[in-house]
Amino acid sequence: MKIFRNSTKDLEGARGGVFALGNFDGVHLGHKEIIAKAKAISTKKNSSSGVLIFDPHPRKFFRPGDENFLISDLKTRAHLLEKCGLDFLGILDFDKKMSNLSPEDFVEKIIHSAIGVSHLIVGYNFKFGKDRVGDVKVLNDICRKLKIELSIIDKVGDKNYIFSSSSVRELLRNGDLKSANEIIGSNWTIKGEVIKGDQRGREIGFPTANILMEGWIEPLFGVYAVSAELNGLSYGGVANIGTRPTFGKSSPILEVHLFDYSGDLYGNDIIISFIDFIRKEKKFDGIDSLKKQISVDSIKAIELINKN
So where are the chain's domains? Predict the structure, then answer.
């Protein structure tokens, strides 16, 4: 999958392609329905397929003081979208200029002129343009004038949930990882760079790969069974997301202890997939009790990994 930013003038094959448009936060089953439609149409037209996303997320642009809400940051979304088998990922800078575009100007200047989309695909509730005044009816009228084919995907869900990013967020915050993963259609995933922490894990015999969670949603803090992908190899592991109250920390961080791995991970990207929730985060009265609990958590994580 090739990635471009704002226009495709330097990317042969993108112009005239079939593109899905949206935020695609979490790349859940609703998004995958839209992507599948884009790929099917592109195959029929013998053209390229792609997704157009905004960066930063418009919600973050308009309300920077809001609580963290991203299910997947830009790096993770690119990874997840590449796994969908798309030809292109286009990243549209969402800035003041973009936010002030009318619906007509957005489609004409960005979708039509800059990128040259031949067929556009959006979800039923897509809103766009200054003050979000554009909806799918407005989009349909504009696309007809510009001779851009348009497909609108209806809501996707099951008897329990509409497949939406907001549903996934609520479930993760409540610790219902199983239901969140059902809506995503796979395990919730984080791709991030391993940073150097305070190395306490190494000191107590459980070295961890640490990943900052800045901007990410804060799921229920606690311990999870995970799998990890590093340099094309897979490992089981146990992870903690939280503020590490035993050590008096306050900023959330993801710490992952990989089974059967030894080595320096600093500066490497690692892909963490969350399999199941084990327990809530808690404060321990000392290092010994913490070590005993990590051993128990590790045994439980191995059991859950083997079940999945």
Answer: 2-153, 188-307
